[in-house]
User: Which sequence fits this backbone?
């Protein structure tokens, strides 16, 4: 059965939409739950059980799902993890993904530890947009946040990516009271020296809560800190393929400042995403534990149409909005398996 047939399926709309008429054209794919770092806000307090190799989807399976999703209107894919650069074969996988029909934008989120060594290979895949997580500019603090003495490696990776021509390079910062609050201004000031987009992410209580539960800073507080220290934040017009970040820049800066306010200002009404977990389930909302299993269907020899139907069903299970408030709730899913 061709992709044409799936697109024209009489069983439902030809694109992924949910019951609230949001069009879902963005798939975030976690290719592994393994990570070389143990970030305090991501890793559960008790060590997680890692999935066996057979439990996670093969690249072949992931590519098949993305191809079917593309036939249902998915145009944008982000590869994440765990740490995507630790999975063997990731470069060849990306080389197959980037030119896939219907996919107009592929990007990668990494912790940057392996970035410098992989930079030429990554460029050759055709990827041009990367996000790198970096919560501090102090090597000793980097170690205490991530468990690895790797600040210089990450920073060298970010600079190598910049020299190579990756753009935009987004720096993801999880803003935490008593952990990196005193560096948020320095991190924001990087946007004067580099064309980076520095994005402050509110801590989300995911993964049975972490050691830093309760330490999350909210966007209005972060904005106040930055405005008091640096100056006004000038809004930047949204562009096609923008994510949930609200974008700003400082006068005279090369780069931008973004805020991802999943807790203080829900952006559910403009959410256009589905997530594919490393274990092979679709997660309609990052902040809800509901998942729709795909792996057994794939491994049971299902046809593309059946997988397309399952994707549509998953889309219909996307709730109107998440209900994770500031009440101290946590959800059980683990960020490193879902991909953030
Ligand atoms: N290993 C890659 C990395 O570090 O960027 C990709 C996976 S990581 C789970 C993706 C993003 O999720 C990172 O930017 C990380 O900072 C963010 N993240 C992890 N746990 C979080 C939490 N509890 N709240 C908010 N963001 C979180």
Assistant:
């Amino acid at each position: 059965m061709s992709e044409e047939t799936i697109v024209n399926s009489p069983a439902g709309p030809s694109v992924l939409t949910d019951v609230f008429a949001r069009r879902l054209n963005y798939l975030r794919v976690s290719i592994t739950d393994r990570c070389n770092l143990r970030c305090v806000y991501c890793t559960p307090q008790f060590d997680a059980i890692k999935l066996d190799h057979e439990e996670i989807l093969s690249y072949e399976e992931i590519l098949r799902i993305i191809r079917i999703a593309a036939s249902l209107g998915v145009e944008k894919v982000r590869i994440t993890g765990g740490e995507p650069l630790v999975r063997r074969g990731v470069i060849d996988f990306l080389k197959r993904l980037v030119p896939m029909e219907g996919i107009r934008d592929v990007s990668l989120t990494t912790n940057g530890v392996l970035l410098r060594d992989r930079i030429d290979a990554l460029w050759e895949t055709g990827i041009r947009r990367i996000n790198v997580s970096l919560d501090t500019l102090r090597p000793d603090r980097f170690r205490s946040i991530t468990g690895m003495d790797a600040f210089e490696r990450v920073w060298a990776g970010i600079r190598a990516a910049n020299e190579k021509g990756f753009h935009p390079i987004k720096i993801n910062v999880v803003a935490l009271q008593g952990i990196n609050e005193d560096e948020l201004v320095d991190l924001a000031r990087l946007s004067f020296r580099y064309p980076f987009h520095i994005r402050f992410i509110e801590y989300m209580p995911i993964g049975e809560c972490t050691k830093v539960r309760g330490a999350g800073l909210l966007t209005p507080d972060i904005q106040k800190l930055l405005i008091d220290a640096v100056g006004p934040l000038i809004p930047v017009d949204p562009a096609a393929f923008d994510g949930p970040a609200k974008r700003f820049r400082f006068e005279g800066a090369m780069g931008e400042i973004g805020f991802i306010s999943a807790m203080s200002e829900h952006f559910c009404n403009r959410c256009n995403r589905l997530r594919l977990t490393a274990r092979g389930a679709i997660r309609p909302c990052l902040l809800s534990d509901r998942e729709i299993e795909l792996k057994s269907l794939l491994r049971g020899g299902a046809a593309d149409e059946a997988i397309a139907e399952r994707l549509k069903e998953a889309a219909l299970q996307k709730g109107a909005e998440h209900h994770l408030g500031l009440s101290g709730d946590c959800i059980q899913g683990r960020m490193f398996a879902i991909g953030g």
In short: Residues 35, 41-42, 80-81, 83, 109-111, 133, 172, 174, 201, 203-204, 206, 335-336, 339-340 surround S-adenosylmethionine (CB under 6 Å).
